[in-house]
Amino acid sequence: MVRSLKKGPYVYERLLKKIAGKKPDEVGMVKTWARSSQIAPEMVGYLFGVHNGKEHVEVRITEDMVGHRLGEFSQTRKFLRHGGKMQKELEQKKKESEIAAAQSAKAAVAAPNAAAKPK
């Protein structure tokens, strides 16, 4: 649901105070727990440490991010992989093809060296 125009965007005031009148290089990383704060145009160029529940994830604000929430750029869950039997088979085939490619490359390098050293 969109916030009403009458209220305006929700920007955490303390974040704006921390960066007010300073250049992005001077401030360093601004740590925050305010994941629900929207990104304002004044924040562009600054580096924020957005808390994801465990640690502060570094997020450098760009122009494309204006209007989004800080929490969108600091994931709270770590994606490992999709599971299942089919995924295991695909990974096994990929591993076998990498091994075969490495062996063929090794053989190709060894063949010219053996032909070049006749004694």
Keywords:
2 domains, 12% strand, alpha+beta, elongated, 119 residues, single chain
* Largest beta-sheet details: 3 strands, mixed
Structural class: alpha+beta
Strand order of the largest sheet: 1-2-3
Proportion of strand residues: 5-15%
Helix content: 25-40%
Mean pLDDT: 89
Could you characterize what this model shows?
- By secondary structure, the chain is α+β, with helices and mostly antiparallel strands.
- It folds into two domains: 13-73, 30s Ribosomal Protein S19, Chain A (2-Layer Sandwich), CATH 3.30.860; 80-111.
- The chain has helices at 13-19, 24-27, 85-116; strands spanning 29-32, 47-51, 56-60.
- It is elongated.
- It starts with 12 loop residues before the first helix and ends with a helix.
Q: What is the topological layout?
A:
Elements: H1 13-19, H2 24-27, E1 29-32, E2 47-51, E3 56-60, H3 85-116
Parallel strand pairs: 1-2
Antiparallel strand pairs: 2-3
The gist of it:
The model has no long low-confidence stretch (mean pLDDT 89).
